[in-house]
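Exercise 7. Given the encoded structure of a 455-residue chain, write a plausible sequence.
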């Protein structure tokens, strides 16, 4: 008889935890997984998936207005928020069922409860009080929105957790933040018809993205009527006299009245009350769990994957970290996730797709880089009359000709960057891009027809 109840105890049934549990079980491990909220985690329940469904909803007005130039007369249109919420909820419930079903089919024992660590091999399941002994513990507890409590009335602001269940679409919205979640929700709310502003401390949205991308997005958002209140913060929120609206006072003294304030200023790793101190697990300065390339903490029997480790906080990364952990510890196949090239999208409208280094990063690391860039009106805009521009940019190391980064702003940028990401991951050179035959007529063909560097 083993001294352990399970080979692996996974805390958290989100992207990383579910993948790790399933793969470990497939390798023959006896696995228990605890989830305190809903299977699927942030991505499925209140992140990527419902967000993308909202993004689709928000883009229909563009399609309706584009249609006229192509001969279509679209009748009066109206939007019904409760229908979107109901259908979104049904889809999320369906996906949650699939996640739980897949875990059970793999033989994973599921407990719907909060779990906390008691020592290097013991986890306590709070719902039952059971103490489970496991040879290995995997922490995959994700992250949660930071709630800024530093100004009066801050409790009136909601976070991304609540926006998915608002009873009604706000007519006026203020989004605090400039990261990708803030930018995406500003786009969604504006697309659905809310008068929307973004307020942020810095001078530009999307810190860390390529500067041309940041500028292009700001221009597009400005043209779409989204207020860009840069260099400001919220200093006070208060209920308006009608008892429903919110008056937001900004650091420059201006007051704006809105129906919803969404705070999207960042996320913090879920480590509180998890028992990590008791087990002696070391954290990084920002509170995330410190791990090595194999996702191992300083305690040999405890590992951590996903957002709780704050490496690259994206679902595909958490999934891959969970998979690598399970293969390494239970599958006899040791491998590490390469975090250097990560294609990613921002589902703003227009969309952003990006992979590899920004121009600034490339100049810092490689010195001599060539920049290929184009900005053009998409073909569809010729008949629809739209004025929005598509941006494409390729960053190349002059010495090796290797493509270091690709950045796209425009329709389907997220889809395009997944494929460009293959080339960049393979180490493609600019010459490889150039000898690729174009798909015509498409926007993507610009990626293989950019001949002369602009810098
Ligand atoms: P999570 O998916 O957060 O799962 C952690 C789970 O652990 C949760 O279900 C939680 O309830 C549970 N838990 C926590 N503590 C305990 C405990 N003590 N006991 C039991 N259970 C516990 N990523 C993308 O790649 N693309 C996107 O478009 C995208 N959009 C996003 C939009 C929003 C609004 C947000 C918030 C995130 C988005 N992300 C996106 C990020 C993505 O959701 C995360 O990177 C991903 O979910 C991380 O997976 P994880 O396994 O680390 O954690």
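Solution.
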């Amino acid at each position: 008889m083993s001294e352990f109840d399970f080979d692996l105890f996974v805390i958290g049934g989100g992207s990383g935890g579910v993948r790790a549990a399933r793969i470990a079980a497939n390798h023959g491990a006896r696995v228990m997984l605890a989830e305190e909220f809903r299977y699927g985690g942030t991505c499925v329940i209140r992140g990527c998936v419902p967000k993308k469904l909202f993004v689709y909803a928000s883009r229909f007005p563009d399609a309706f207005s584009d249609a006229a130039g192509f001969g279509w007369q679209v009748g009066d249109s109206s939007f019904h928020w409760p229908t979107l919420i109901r259908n979104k909820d049904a889809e999320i419930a369906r996906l949650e069922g699939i996640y739980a079903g897949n875990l059970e089919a793999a033989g994973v024992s599921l407990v719907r409860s909060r779990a906390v660590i008691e020592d290097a091999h013991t986890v306590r399941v709070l719902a039952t009080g059971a103490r489970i002994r496991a040879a290995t513990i995997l922490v995959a507890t994700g992250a949660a929105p930071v709630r800024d409590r530093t100004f009066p009335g801050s409790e009136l602001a909601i976070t991304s957790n609540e926006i998915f269940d608002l009873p009604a679409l706000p007519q006026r919205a203020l989004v605090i933040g400039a990261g990708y979640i803030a930018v995406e929700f500003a786009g969604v709310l504006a697309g659905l018809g809310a008068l929307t502003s973004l307020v942020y401390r810095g001078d530009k949205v999307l810190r860390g993205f390529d500067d041309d991308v940041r500028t292009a997005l700001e221009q597009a958002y400005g043209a779409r009527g989204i207020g860009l209140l840069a260099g400001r913060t919220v200093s006070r929120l208060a209920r308006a006299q009608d008892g429903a609206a919110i008056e937001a006072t900004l650091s420059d003294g201006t007051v704006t009245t809105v129906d919803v304030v969404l705070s999207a200023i960042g996320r913090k790793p879920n480590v509180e009350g998890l028992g990590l101190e008791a087990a002696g697990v070391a954290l990084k300065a920002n509170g995330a769990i410190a791990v090595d390339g194999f996702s191992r903490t300083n305690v040999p029997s405890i590992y951590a994957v996903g957002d709780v480790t704050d490496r690259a906080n994206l679902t595909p990364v958490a999934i891959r970290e969970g998979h690598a952990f399970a293969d390494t510890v239970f599958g006899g196949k040791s491998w590490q996730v390469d975090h250097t090239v990560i294609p990613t999208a921002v589902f703003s409208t227009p969309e952003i797709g990006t992979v590899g280094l920004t121009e600034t990063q490339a100049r810092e690391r490689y010195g001599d880089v060539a920049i290929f860039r184009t900005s053009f009106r998409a073909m569809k805009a010729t008949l629809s009359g739209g004025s929005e521009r598509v941006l494409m940019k390729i960053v190349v190391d002059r010495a090796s000709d290797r493509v270091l980064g690709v950045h796209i702003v425009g329709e389907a940028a997220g889809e395009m960057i997944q494929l460009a990401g293959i080339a960049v991951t393979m180490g493609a050179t600019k010459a490889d891009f150039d000898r690729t035959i174009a798909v015509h007529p498409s926007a993507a063909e610009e990626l293989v027809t950019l001949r002369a560097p602009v810098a």
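Remark. The longest helix spans residues 81-105. Students should compare their own answers with the one above.
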